[in-house]
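Final report, Chapter 2: Outcomes

The project's central promise was a pipeline that accepts a single protein chain and returns its three-dimensional structure in a standardized token representation, suitable for archiving and comparison. That pipeline is now operational. To close this chapter, we reproduce one record exactly as it appears in the project archive, with the input sequence first and the structure output second.
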Amino acid sequence: MLAYPYKLTPDDNGTFLVTFPDIPEATAVGEDLESAKIEALDGLLCALDGYFEDRRAIPLPGSYSDTQDTVSLPALETAKVLLLNEMVSQGVKKAEMARRLEVHMPQVDRLLDLRHNTKIDFMEKAASKLGKHLNISFS
């Protein structure tokens, strides 16, 4: 899974601002440290939605220290980020992906929607249509 480092900055009103060095559009606010850490994932996902809407490659997380705070994307969202990046890298548009998958455009729209619970076998099929394999492991 992709783990994005973030920075917590105390604000002058007692809240904490969450920012992500790799995704500058991503921010979140928490009333305290615990709520800021909880809000970090939602702030990151909201920013990533913009990348999906614009069909732009999403920056992958940079290196970070073991002591740095990170938020990990869930497995399905990680797979969708990697799928989008591969489509952008190969210049594959949504219509072309629909043709390759032999599905209608709304199914590709859902495939590229972070909030849609896409089945893993469809993700695997999409990866194969790009000449890639979806790998899953326990760690």
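Archive annotation: The beta strands are 3-5, 7-10, 16-19, 27-30, 70-72.
This record, like all others produced under the grant, will remain available to the consortium after the project formally closes.
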